[in-house]
Amino acid sequence: MERHREHYRIDREIDASPEAVFAALLALIGGSEDAPTYVRLGDPPPHGPGALVVFQLQEYELHEVCVELEVPRKRRYRMVSGAPVDHYEALTEVAPQGDGTLLTWQGWTEHPDPEVAAAWNHLARESIGRAVEMVATRAEES
């Protein structure tokens, strides 16, 4: 069965150090009551590979697992359940840029139905866009 692939990429320059940006990125998990929450800690705890995060996005209860973590540079994760697509994974990368930092957050969606893949990718991109702005605000205020 052929799978349709969708991709998005968000680049955001932030006036803060890479360490502050990465810390703000990880702080998105386990913060407010409606924030994603760890149900299983990773190795090393809490953020490392194997960490399982559960959160709500519209009507979907999503379960994502961290598959790669390089502090303060990179975090890769994938959905293990809850998304209406066969496969979704994302990668966040933090790199020095001038006096600040470049945050890149990109995701890949795969599904046999191109309309389902496109709709999910659109929803994911909107959600990640809001998260990127939260990270930028927190990092610049730190």
Q: What is the radius of gyration computed over CA atoms, rounded to a whole number of angstroms?
A: 15 Å
Instruction: Report the CATH superfamily.
Output: START domain
CATH architecture classification = 2-Layer Sandwich
Largest sheet: 7 strands, antiparallel
Remind me, CATH topology? Answer: Alpha-D-Glucose-1,6-Bisphosphate, Chain A, domain 4
Question: What is the C-level CATH assignment?
Answer: Alpha Beta
Helices and strands, in order, run as EHEEEEEEH
The quaternary organization reads as single chain
- Shape estimate: globular
Low-confidence stretches: none
Q: How is this structure best described in words?
A:
The chain has 142 residues and is of the alpha+beta class. The chain has one domain: Alpha-D-Glucose-1,6-Bisphosphate, Chain A, domain 4 (2-Layer Sandwich), CATH 3.30.530.20. It has two helices and seven strands. The protein has helices at residues 18-26, 114-141, and strands spanning 4-14, 37-40, 52-57, 60-70, 74-81, 87-97, 100-111. The protein has a seven-stranded antiparallel β-sheet with strand order 1-7-6-5-4-3-2. A hairpin with a 2-residue loop joins strand 6 (87-97) and strand 7 (100-111). Helix 1 (18-26) packs across helix 2 (114-141). The chain starts with a strand and ends with a helix.
